[in-house]
Amino acid sequence: METLTTQRLLLRPFKLSDAADEFEFASLEEVGFNAGFKPHVTIEDSEKIIATFIAQDEVWAIEHKETGKVIGSIGLHPDSLRKDLNTKEIGYVLSPKFQKQGLMLEAVLAVIDFAFNKQNLSLLAANHFSFNESSKRVILKAGFNYDGVIRRARCLYEGTKVDLMIYSLDKKKYFNKKEKE
Ligand SMILES: CC(C)(COP(=O)(O)OP(=O)(O)OC[C@H]1O[C@@H](n2cnc3c(N)ncnc32)[C@H](O)[C@@H]1OP(=O)(O)O)[C@@H](O)C(=O)NCCC(=O)NCCS
Fold first, then answer.
1. How many angstroms does the Cα of residue 134 sit away from the middle of ligand 1?
2. How far apart are CA 107 and CA 101, in angstroms?
3. Which ligand 1 atom is the nearest neighbour of the CA of 93?
4. I need a labelling partner for 42 at 20 to 30 A (CA). Which of 16, 124, 160, 168 fits?
């Protein structure tokens, strides 16, 4: 997959050697809880998920240029709510140590640009659990429109059903807004 460069980040393919960096944040309860996965218990858990990322070829490692560390991940996944193959769903995770600096918004904007200009997608989807205010802010700042809520649409890793807030960004609207800027 293509490497994308932003001011402070490299979005690049994962390597198995990123497992220690991945484990640092993916083992944290707050990260897994908000993103919907069971926190990693051992470094092998991180290696396994990285092997899946490499095989699926739809998730970038977010490398922080200044420190050289992998501080998160961002992906363009098959849209879980639409059959239209020309749409994808964006998903992301950022290490708490690197939050509140605008880094995820920077990554999301680069991925949106790639999705519409290089992959020629017609629509992007983004979703978050109803309690995830940080993700909501990233999604809205990136220009997505709120489409609604699907009650009890997802399960937390321990089984609790949660409401899913759903958003989309239409390619035409995205380019119209860009032209006006
Ligand atoms: C969701 C998540 C990525 C958001 O991280 P974040 O650090 O809040 O997001 P950003 O990197 O875009 O930073 C935005 C914050 O940085 C602040 N900030 C500081 N400098 C900034 C800059 N130069 N540019 C933009 N924002 C800046 C903003 O004020 C903003 O804070 P606010 O939302 O309180 O106003 C993160 O909380 C996370 O990974 N959580 C766990 C997993 C998860 O929830 N994944 C998403 C599942 S849907």
1. 6
2. 12
3. 39
4. 160
CA distances from 30 to 26, 35, 42, 117, 165 (A): 9, 9, 17, 34, 19
Residue 122 CB burial class (10 angstroms; 0-12, 13-18, ≥19)? middle
**Fold for domain 4-180?**
Aminopeptidase (3.40.630)
- The H or E element that residue 170 is part of is strand 161-170
Q: Where are the domains of the chain?
A: 4-180
Q: What is the DSSP letter of 179?
A: H
Distance CA 139, CA 142 (A): 5
Q: What is the pTM of this model?
A: 0.97
Pairwise CA distance, residues 8 & 66, whole Å: 7
For residue 36, the ligand 1 atom closest to its alpha carbon is 47
How many angstroms separate the alpha carbon of residue 102 from the centre of ligand 1? 5
What does the pLDDT look like over 141-167, one tens digit per residue?
999 999 999 999 999 988 899 999 999
Tell me the mean pLDDT in the region 62-72. Answer: 98
